[in-house]
Amino acid sequence: MGQIAGWVTADYLHQHARRQRHTESIPDRAWQALIDHHDPRDTLEIADNARWRGHTSHAVALCKTTADGHISRELAELLREHGYFDELRRHADAGHKDATFHLVNHLNERGQIDELRQRSDAGNEYATGQLANLLQERGQSDEAIAILWKRADAGSGAAAVQLVNLLHKRGQIDELQQLTKVGYRYATVQLADLMHKRGQSDEAIVMLRKRVDAGGSYAAGQLAHLMHECGQGDEAIAMLRQHADVGYGYAAPLVQLLHTRGQIDEAIVVLRQHADMGDTDDRWAAGHLAVLLHERGQIDEL
Q: Which distant-in-sequence residues (6+ apart) come within 8 Å of 161 by Cβ?
């Protein structure tokens, strides 16, 4: 064919046909031919295309031919939505995160504790968390705590956080103190909150101040909050100002406390200082600064 100068009818017809083919329904026989004779390297792409076009059975048939753990996030969701749990389990067993997520949620919804326990014992953190939730719902909180404690001791940060929250919820102050002594920072914060609620605010403040004085910025926010609650707001601000240049751990609670007390101009000053630093840890300041300036109607300064 000779060259056609310019954009003319031939171009339009070619482009229109491409758009039509893109959305046109493909006959089942064609899908079956693709399933039976496609290049294995194209399996995932064809399966996703089938899912996108609403051909669930064809997408699942293609999933069954993929290597273990070799599916997309969307296909994992499709397998769960349409009840293909054996196929979902195969990919989860191969370590596919999205397949594992959907399978564990399904097991939790069905109350299948035994399989959740198996997956937790195999080191799956998400299964551990869902197992603990299910046990709590069934009134077996002591068992949930034991499972979470074991996983936390093995180094699971997610299990440690869930454990601390559960102990806090149940008011188990002795166990929180035990975790605090072995270095669980979040346990220290939740322990202080529990002590405050039990009327032991002075003791909680002393404990948190020791952590802050030793460089524990993680405790600064809770310390400032308790001091403010106990009428020591000015002292809390002074304490935070001493460390504010260190970074987010002290500056953020300082800004929050100043904002709570209505000292917006001072909060803006602190935020400007950190926004101008440009360090990674101080990028939070720009967003907070924009919010406060907007609240004050200082749009021109944004």
A: 186
Q: Which letter, b or e, does each residue of 122-142 get, where b requires 16 or more Cβ atoms within 10 Å of its Cβ?
A: eebbbbbbbbbebbbeeeebe
DSSP 7: S
Rg, the chain, Cα only: 29
* 275 or 114: which leads in pLDDT: 114
pTM above 0.85, yes or no: no
Classify the phi-psi angles of 83: left when phi > 0, otherwise alpha if psi is within -120 to 50, otherwise beta: left
Instruction: Write the DSSP assignment of 70-87 as a string of letters.
Output: ---HHHHHHHHHTT-HHH
Which burial class, exposed, middle or buried, applies to 12 when counting CB atoms under 10 A from its CB (0-12, 13-18, 19+)?
A: exposed
Q: Is 80 exceeded by the pLDDT of residue 216?
A: yes
Q: What is the H or E stretch that residue 166 is in? A: helix 157-170
